[in-house]
Amino acid sequence: MSKILIAEDDLELRRLFIRVLQKNGYTVKAVTNGCEVLESLKEGFDLVLSDAIMPVMNGFEMVKHLREMGSAIPVLILTAKDAFDDMSEGLLSGTVEYMMKPINMKEMILQIGALLSRAKIIIEHRQILGNTILEADSLTVTEEGRSVTLPQKDFQLLYKMASNPGRIFTCQQLMDDIWDRDGEWDSKTVDSHVGMLCEQFRENKDFKIVSMRGIGYKVAPCV
């Protein structure tokens, strides 16, 4: 089971997080500030759960140091509204997510699970949706023993949407992440590529690509 490092200076909250995470099967260690997080990373943790405001080194500073060190460990920041307003936009990109206080414990567990899953995808360069396997290194999709190699843009589209099943991606988000921002692309480009994916995988038993009219697209599990 994954190891989680908790950074929280409030004793009661720290005890609560420990109890909830252990109940959900995680191995945990708790510290009280960002400096102690940096000192503890050598013990091999899979995720950091950190309060935003702490003495000695707060959560924002801690994330900055982590990234400067080259660490891509997922971080979930717990923050009050006032602190969130002061946070730089870049802090919340990539492997850093946030939750607003007061914290819903069930939501926190779900978000931790999602962060750990995404980190695993990044490390392994593959995603598994039921019996369908997406291999990023070879641009292949394998289903029921049959493999197909997709054009790069098509694979990147499918891989990105499949990394967050159920999440709606706007055409602009997909364009910004996959196509050269200086190129002459528009939403019709995305529509065309997604349309080809829909046709190619319309018989897939593990996922479907859903068009959200006027909003964007998502990959959803078949039920």
Provide key terms for this protein:
five-stranded parallel beta sheet; 8 helices; 12 strands; alpha/beta; 223 residues; elongated
What does this molecule look like?
With 223 residues, this protein is α/β, with parallel strands linked by helices. The protein is 39% helix and 25% strand. The chain has eight helices and twelve strands. Strand 8 (140-143) and strand 9 (146-149) form a beta hairpin. Helix 7 (171-178) packs across helix 8 (187-200). The longest helix has 20 residues, at 105-124. It is elongated, with a radius of gyration of 20 Å. The model has no long low-confidence stretch (mean pLDDT 84).
Strand order of the largest sheet: 2-1-3-4-5
Can you count the helices? Answer: 8
**How many angstroms separate the termini?**
28 Å
Largest sheet: 5 strands, parallel
- In terms of quaternary structure, what is this? single chain
Number of strands: 12
What's the gyration radius in Å? 20 Å
Q: What is the arithmetic mean of pLDDT?
A: 84
Order of helices and strands: EHEHEHEHEHEEEEHEHHEE
Helix percentage:
25-40%
Shape: elongated
Unreliable segments of 5+ consecutive residues:
none
The share of residues in extended strands comes to 15-25%
* Category from helices, strands and their pairing: alpha/beta
Provide the fold topology.
Elements: E1 3-7, H1 11-23, E2 27-31, H2 34-40, E3 47-51, H3 59-68, E4 75-79, H4 81-85, E5 96-100, H5 105-124, E6 126-129, E7 132-135, E8 140-143, E9 146-149, H6 152-162, E10 169-170, H7 171-178, H8 187-200, E11 207-212, E12 216-221
Parallel strand pairs: 1-2, 1-3, 3-4, 4-5
Antiparallel strand pairs: 6-7, 7-8, 8-9, 10-12, 11-12
